[in-house]
Amino acid sequence: MLPLLLLLLLAAFLHGTAAAQGQQGLPSLPIGVNYGANADNLPTPAAVASFLAKSTTIDRVKLFDANPAFLDAFAANAPSISLAVSIPNAVLPTFADRSSGLDAARGWVRDNLSPHISAGANVTLLLAGNEVLGPTVVPDLVVALLPAMRRLAQALQLESLPDVRVTTPHYLGILAPSDGIPSNARFRPGLDAKVLAPMLRFHNDTGSPFMVNAYPYFSYNAANLNYAVFRPNAGVYDPGTKLNYTSMFDAQMDAIYTAMKKLGFGDGVEIAVGEAGWPTKAEAAQVGVGVEEAKDFNAGMIRVCSGGKGTPLMPGRKFETYVFSLFDENQKPGPVAERNFGIFNTDFTPKYDLGLLRQGSSGSPNPSPKPSPNPSPSGGGKWCVAKSGASATDLQNNINYACGYIDCKPIQSGGACFDPNNVQSHASYVMNAYYQANGLHDYDCNFKGTGVVTSSDPSYGSCKYVS
């Protein structure tokens, strides 16, 4: 039992740490959103800025350009919200030029940032292009990327804006092809030593994050859907670290961390998530896309990035993160899914509850993302318990998974549900707590066929099952 107890104690510690970091009665949710405007039905920028500042716990917004109307709207209506402002890829060679690049960068900062920051816009990140290193590779842009970032960082210092950090978002294809095992990850040859090592040095020296666009959506299939959207699953075992991954997102983040560490920068540079999301609609025949999948993925990602859970190789760590996206964008080209990543409708009602609305705001009964870390007994209803005959290995996997999200102190030694001290009893308790906290959906009690919903209260003695 010792390894299990250590795991449960760690889960309880992380939960307590996350809970202690809330401010002003709100959950600690350093979570952001991507605010795109490729649509013809969106509310005004002023209305958007006001809504985010007054009605949500969202504390940062990523913009895809330096649109002055957007910057002015946030300056006037949401000066507390941090802004990440993007620069088009095509402009980067201008900043990279050895003789004139610094002057060009200073001019861009003066024209596009300084007036709005003076008016109150809280710009904290400047993004030099987007996915310059692929999937579409333009050699001139690759060569220009890091010099442009250096010139922009210098320009911000010279223009008295030292708090604005410079980074650039990468797609996960910067990693060499692998078998999905995080400990095997490394950056692609040709990019690792020549491009990414000096770039990581830049991030280390300037205190800016290494930003990745992490999309399990683009790597999932029908067989690994549960693994992709944070639903219970057997997981993927990493023999190199002896860790079991039950989330593709965790594996992707730890793969980036591992690749950075192999270049000597695993702990010295923060990782930020520039984009991560799941669509609510796709092609008619596509499985695994809908409101429930989008909710499950984004809620799970928020727990990892801003709820204090962290990843197996980075436990307790938080990541500056921008959910993709704030609204659906009905004018985007490409597949149906590209137009349906929004988490809010254009009337500001949530498409599904992620707990991002402030308590008392319309449409959200809860101030924190589900599942709740510590549900309370309410008596009566439905419960989830382990199936008789389920293997001890499967039930232990269920305990390991669920204890990352709910309070497992009751099954620790001395807890009300510790006795009987066996995996069947402990698994039933934590599987039910997870099921109750996550909204009582039948699939939340599936646990790969090892759980069953019952109407008979399994509580006994002082051990009370939440309901």
UniProtKB/TrEMBL annotation:
<dbReference type="InterPro" id="IPR044965">
    <property type="entry name" value="Glyco_hydro_17_plant"/>
</dbReference>
<dbReference type="Pfam" id="PF07983">
    <property type="entry name" value="X8"/>
</dbReference>
<keyword id="KW-0378">Hydrolase</keyword>
<dbReference type="GO" id="GO:0005886">
    <property type="term" value="C:plasma membrane"/>
</dbReference>
<keyword id="KW-1015">Disulfide bond</keyword>
<protein>
    <recommendedName>
        <fullName>glucan endo-1,3-beta-D-glucosidase</fullName>
        <ecNumber>3.2.1.39</ecNumber>
    </recommendedName>
</protein>
<dbReference type="InterPro" id="IPR012946">
    <property type="entry name" value="X8"/>
</dbReference>
<dbReference type="GO" id="GO:0005975">
    <property type="term" value="P:carbohydrate metabolic process"/>
</dbReference>
<comment type="similarity">
    <text>Belongs to the glycosyl hydrolase 17 family.</text>
</comment>
<dbReference type="Pfam" id="PF00332">
    <property type="entry name" value="Glyco_hydro_17"/>
</dbReference>
<dbReference type="GO" id="GO:0006952">
    <property type="term" value="P:defense response"/>
</dbReference>
<keyword id="KW-0611">Plant defense</keyword>
<keyword id="KW-0732">Signal</keyword>
<feature type="region of interest" description="Disordered">
    <location>
        <begin position="355"/>
        <end position="382"/>
    </location>
</feature>
<keyword id="KW-0326">Glycosidase</keyword>
<feature type="signal peptide">
    <location>
        <begin position="1"/>
        <end position="19"/>
    </location>
</feature>
<dbReference type="GO" id="GO:0042973">
    <property type="term" value="F:glucan endo-1,3-beta-D-glucosidase activity"/>
</dbReference>
<dbReference type="InterPro" id="IPR000490">
    <property type="entry name" value="Glyco_hydro_17"/>
</dbReference>
<feature type="domain" description="X8">
    <location>
        <begin position="382"/>
        <end position="465"/>
    </location>
</feature>
<dbReference type="InterPro" id="IPR017853">
    <property type="entry name" value="GH"/>
</dbReference>
<feature type="compositionally biased region" description="Pro residues">
    <location>
        <begin position="366"/>
        <end position="376"/>
    </location>
</feature>
